[in-house]
Design brief:
By secondary structure, the protein is of the alpha+beta class. The protein has two domains: about 5-115, no CATH class; about 115-180, no CATH class. Helix content is about 50%, strand content about 15%. The chain has helices at about 5-15, 20-35, 40-50, 75-80, 85-115, 160-170; strands spanning about 55-60, 65-70, 115-120, 125-130, 145, 155, 175-180. Strands 3, 4, 5, 6 and 7 form a five-stranded antiparallel beta sheet that branches. A two-stranded antiparallel sheet has the order 1-2. About 25% of the residues are buried. Keywords: Coiled coil.
Amino acid sequence: MKSDFFLRHWKMLEQNINVLNDHERKTGKLLFNSLNKLSADDRQALKEKYYDSTVYSKFDKARGIYLSVIPVKDEVAASKGNVSLEEFRENKNRAIKRLEAIMDEVSQAIKNNEQYIYMELKGYYVKGFGSESTAKFSFSHTDLVLSPSFDEAYTFNADNKAERAIVESLENCGFERRLLDRNW
């Protein structure tokens, strides 16, 4: 995964957290979870190149925000950090390589996590379906068993066609999808 796109948006994603669209939230989720796994030295090298830039680009008139930055030139970042150009580039390239490997792992973890969801309506979670609980996927809405406890919530597999149909039916009744892992 190429990290340059994400790193150019790093500053914008952080500064405009309250006005991000869904795509930008997903971008931020991947980037920030990946940056957190980098060493402080690697993060600093990337910060000097991307986050510390004061040259903004791609202005969104509707929201009144810039969407990205133009990275600081390597020569300028090396000079600010009192290191040679060669040393800065080595550190930056090593950090980028590590970040891209981490982003691949985090992306897969997020994808796997989003495969499993639960359904919630006003603080109540789908626990099961009628007397057969979760064993039966043919149900009427009167057969739903709800619970106020997240721990008892039924986990839907979004990759399963029958379960996806039930999720869509529940959404039409006002239920909302929730990710299984709230830490993402």
